[in-house]
Design brief:
Layout: H1 10-20, E1 24-25, E2 27-32, E3 38-43, E4 47-50, E5 55-61, H2 72-80, E6 82-87, H3 94-100, H4 110-114, E7 118-119, E8 128-129, E9 134-146, E10 153-165, E11 170-171, E12 174-175, E13 183-185, E14 190-192
Antiparallel strand pairs: 1-13, 2-3, 2-6, 4-5, 5-10, 6-9, 7-8, 9-10, 11-12, 13-14
Amino acid sequence: MKIDPAGMDFRDLHHLLAGAVVPRPIALVSTLGENGVQNVAPLSSISIACVRPPMLSFSLSTRRRKGGEKKDTLRNIEFAREFVVNVPVVESIAEAMNKSGGEFPDHVSEFTECGLTAVPAERVRAPMVLESPVNFECRLVKILEFGEHPSVSSLVIGEVIMAHVRDEFWANGELQSAKMKAIGRLLEPYCRTNEIFEFNVEYTL
Ligand SMILES: Cc1cc2nc3c(=O)[nH]c(=O)nc-3n(C[C@H](O)[C@H](O)[C@H](O)COP(=O)(O)O)c2cc1C
């Protein structure tokens, strides 16, 4: 079967891409609004943009059903030019994460609505998610816009300026990712990382 993306609508293109790029990691991106409200949203477009300097990227789409309205996360980042990437989403906060993906008015904090704990970061004003194994404090580097109104995607790239790791997930100078019980996303369903295997092959970075 062959599929020509030309002429496909947004939903079908999303399903083609997000059904194939699996499993996707999920980040909780936390920001502070111009109105002082602490915001958090789950994003499965999170990726490593660069290792040195350390940079993370994620993509935010507009709300098409609301005439192409920007999401709070994007508006907050455009305003404050900083944010925190809290990763990975782990089983114990799966429900809270899923709830935080719902639509809340911009004066409502998803932290209190969803039962996540906001703690102060060190170098940015955006809060960190206490329950996440790792918090990356980021300063905005660039936002690249693709697509046309009302279906615009903004690729946000930020530099990690401070990292926090929960002690239980750090041993021998390394992150213990296998212990985290991270969850991932398929097209829409979620998956666990409780079956891990490895190969004894060395590769160079
Ligand atoms: C697991 C999961 C992954 C998501 N990934 C993305 C994403 O990568 N980009 C995006 O724009 N929205 C994504 N969403 C939807 C946003 O989380 C949702 O639109 C949210 O309401 C945005 O919140 P905000 O308005 O506070 O920024 C995802 C939702 C879930 C549940």
